[in-house]
Design brief:
77% helix, mainly alpha, flat
Length: 155
């Protein structure tokens, strides 16, 4: 499967934002006198997991959109007209796309849980330094939307 340009672009934005916020977090660790090797390793683990999680989510959305190719208003599978093969096909495409998203969600949730457990139980990682970056993609998305809103107001 080819990775669409939008997935690459958005993942790069998230990666830059998560890296910047991780640097700020490590600066706070430094100012608090808590910056050490486990904090840096934790930040790297958390940042990689956060960006990876976002990339996998974007990839699953791309895959689900591919399954919905040409479907604008797919019928509910339970309400599909028995006589219409087209409605049945559209309903099946919708179900397949939904399954892709659901499987991706559970796989990514498992990834985050495994990263959290590793951060907590493996002593070379500082738990907070690894867990905090997992929240950064949402913050980055919020900040990008805020900045785009302000650009729109100026124009």
């Amino acid at each position: 499967m080819m990775i669409q340009e939008a997935v690459k672009t958005e993942t790069k934005k998230i990666a830059v934002g998560v890296t910047g916020l991780s640097a700020v977090m490590l600066l706070v660790f430094l100012l608090l006198g808590k910056l050490d090797y486990p904090a840096v390793l934790g930040a790297v683990l958390g940042a990689c997991a956060a960006v990876g999680n976002f990339f996998l989510m974007a990839l699953s959305v791309q895959q689900a959109a591919g399954k919905m190719n040409g479907v604008h208003a797919a019928a509910d599978p339970d309400e599909a007209d028995e006589e219409s093969e087209e409605e049945k096909r559209l309903a099946q495409q919708k179900k397949a796309a939904k399954r892709v998203i659901q499987r991706s969600y559970y796989a990514r949730l498992l990834l985050v849980v495994l990263v959290a457990l590793a951060a907590i139980y493996i002593p070379c990682f500082h738990p907070l330094a690894a867990l905090i970056p997992l929240m950064f993609p949402r913050l980055v998305i919020f900040l990008f939307q805020l900045l785009q809103g302000r650009k729109g107001e100026k124009n």
